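Reviewers of the previous submission asked for a worked example of the structure-prediction workflow described in the proposal, so we include one complete record here. The input consisted solely of the amino acid sequence. No template or homolog information was supplied to the procedure at any stage.
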Amino acid sequence: MKVRIFCLVLLSAALSCKPSDEVRLQQFLLKGNGALKEGNTEEASRYFKEALNVDPCYADALNNLGTIEFQSNRYEQALELYNRAIVCKPDFLAAYFNRVNTYYELKQYYNAQDDINKLKASKPDTAIIYFAEGLNLTKLRNFESAQASFSKAISLDQGNVEFLVNRGTVSYYLRQFDAAEKDLQLAESINAKEPNIYNTRAMMAIFNNHHDEALVQIQKALDLSPNQPYFLNNRGFVFLMQNKLPEALVDINRSIQMDPQNGWAYRNKGIYYLLTGDNANAERLLRQALSLDSFIERIHFYMGSAFLRNGKKKEACVEFQRSEDAGDRMVTAEMTKVCR
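From that input alone, the workflow returned the following C-alpha cells.
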C-alpha cells in the first residue's frame, strides 16, 4: 500500500504595509500560489523564481518550488530546494514536513526519521507526525515501534480510518491477525468505502493460503478503486497462486504499466516466469524487484528459487536463509538439504 505521508504544505502570505521588497515577495508568492491552484505549474514556478531574484533566501518560495518538483516526481530536485529552505529558515516546520515526504520517496528512511524527531519535539501532539513515523518505521521493518507510533496517532485522532488501517497492516506484518482484524472492523464501521481495508484483509488471506477469500477481498478493493496498481497486482498474485496464469499476467502487466516503480509487480512477474519455466527472465525480474524495494514480502524465497534453477547454489542458499530470517516459512526440506 503506497501512501503519501503528508499533504504537501504550500505557504501563502497576506499583504501588509512593509518595505517594498517585502511587498514584492508577498505578491510573487500569492501569484504563484494562485497559478498552482489553477494547475499552471510553469507560471507558478516563474513567480516563485521572481521572488528568489528579490531574495535568494526566501524560504517560502524555495519550499513551494520544492513542492512543484515533488509533485512531478523529481525528488532529488525537491530535496535540494527543501534543504535550501531549511538553511534559510531553520525553524521552518512546513519544509521539514515536506522533506520527510521526499526522504520517504527516496527511501532515505533514517534521514526521514531525523526530521520526524525534530517535528515531534516542536509539535508533540500532532497526530500526522506519529502517522509519518509509523509509515517510516514500517519501511525500516521496526514493526513494534511502528505499531506504537500508529497507536499514538490514533489516540490523538481516534476517527482516522487511514491510521487504523495502517496499524492493522503492521499487526498483519507481526502476524497478529486478531488485532489486525479488530482495527479493520473499526475502520470499516467508520468508512466502509476505504479500499485498503479489503486489500489488507486480502493480504492476510494470501498469507494463510486462503486464496478464494483473498480474491473476494481484493475484488472489493478494486470495486472501490478500479485503477489502483497495487490492488491489481495483488489480484494478479492471487491468480498466480490459483494457477490462472493468463489472468495473472494481464493484471501484473497493467500494474507495471500504471506504476513502473512498483517492485511488488516485478516480483509477481518474476514468479510468473518461474511458473512458466523461464528461469532466466525470472531471475532478471526478481533482481529488478529487489532493486526497487527491499521490503517486498517473500522476495528472498522466490529469488533463491530462481538462483537454484539457474545453477547458482551459493546465491540461492543465501536467499533461502534470508527468507527464513524474515519468517516466510516457505523453504522446503529439499531446499534446506541442498544448502547443507
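The chain is about 75% helix and 0% strand. We consider this example representative of the routine output the project will generate in years two and three.
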